[in-house]
Specification:
Helices cover 21% and strands 35% of the residues. It is α+β, with helices and mostly antiparallel strands. The strands form three sheets. The chain has a four-stranded antiparallel β-sheet with strand order 4-7-1-8, covered by helices on one side. Strands 2-3 form a two-stranded antiparallel ribbon. A hairpin with a 7-residue loop joins β5 and β6. The longest helix has 14 residues. It is globular, with a radius of gyration of 16 Å. It starts with 8 loop residues before the first strand and ends in a 10-residue tail after the last strand.
Length: 118
């Protein structure tokens, strides 16, 4: 069992809010962030697609049928120990040129993965 699969107790949660259409080198920015988090050995990352929202630009993005906006809000949530998250923050600085990045303390109650077939 790796160190990441024993994550319990105090941790940090990074939440990154970007647009669904944000791109990094011809691929979705959220995909790049998730892959870099995986490569960095972080415990996990999830991407959530919003149905409506606005940010610093004050433009409202919505999935309603009659709306012209298709650049819906996306949130990427990453949780791991302080020692693993803090070095990863420089990666986010490089990637996220527009959006919002927040960092908050959290407590991991349970972190259990599926059994791997060996």
């Amino acid at each position: 069992m790796s160190e990441a699969t024993r994550l319990t107790g105090r941790a940090l949660r990074v939440t990154i809010f970007i647009g669904e259409n944000d791109i990094w080198h011809h691929r979705p920015l959220y995909t790049e962030i998730v892959h870099r988090a995986h490569k960095a050995g972080l415990a996990g990352a999830s991407v959530f697609r919003g149905i409506e929202g606005f940010g610093a630009s004050s433009l409202i993005h919505t999935q309603r049928l009659l709306s012209l906006s298709e650049d819906l809000p996306v949130a990427i949530v990453i949780v791991d120990s302080d020692e693993r998250v803090r070095p990863f923050l420089s990666t986010i600085d490089e990637l996220v040129t527009e959006g919002l990045v927040i960092l908050d303390d959290c407590e991991v109650i349970r972190y259990v993965g599926r059994e791997q077939n060996e």
